[in-house]
Amino acid sequence: MRREAPEKKRQDEKQLISEMIAYYCQKKHGFAAGLICEDCQKLMDYANVRIERCPFTESKTFCSHCEVHCYAPKMRGRIREVMRYSGPRMLILHPLICVRHALTGIQNKKAGKKEGEKDD
C-alpha cells in the first residue's frame, strides 16, 4: 500500500475536524445543521491553520501520537472535548471519512516502523 499524498491527507483531516466540530456545536450548543457558533468557528479556524502548518503531515498517524503538540493548551483541551464527543459518533455519521482516516494512520504507522528498522 502506498502512503497518501500530504496535501490529500491535509484536506481529509480538515474535512474530518470540520465535521466533528460542526456536529459538536449542533448537539452541545443547539445550532442548526450547517451553522456553528462563533466559538466553534474560531476553534475550526485554529484547527485548520494547525493542520495546514503541520510539518509532519507526511509521516504522522494522529495528532494525539505526535511528539510535538502544536495546539495551545486551551485549544488542545477544547479540541479534545470535541473529539471525545464527536469521534465515536463520526463512525455512524461519516463512516467513509473515518475508515479512510484510520487506514491512513495505520499505513503511516507501518511505514514509520519500517523506516526505523532500516536505521538499525
Structural class per helix/strand content?
mainly alpha
Number of strands: 0
Distance between the termini: 23 Å
Mean pLDDT reading: 82
Strand residues, percent: under 5%
Query: What is Rg?
Result: 15 Å
Low-confidence parts, pLDDT < 50 over ≥5 residues? none
Q: What best-fitting shape do the alpha-carbon axes yield?
A: globular
Biggest sheet record: none
Could you list some keywords that capture this structure?
120 residues; mainly alpha; 72% helix
Task: Explain what you see.
There is one protein chain. The chain has 120 residues and is mainly alpha-helical. It is built from four helices and no strands. The chain has helices spanning 6-29, 38-53, 73-93, 95-119. Helix 1 (6-29) packs across helix 3 (73-93), helix 1 (6-29) packs across helix 4 and helix 3 crosses helix 4 (95-119). The longest helix has 25 residues, at 95-119. It is globular and about 40 Å long. 18% of the residues are buried. The model has no long low-confidence stretch (mean pLDDT 82).
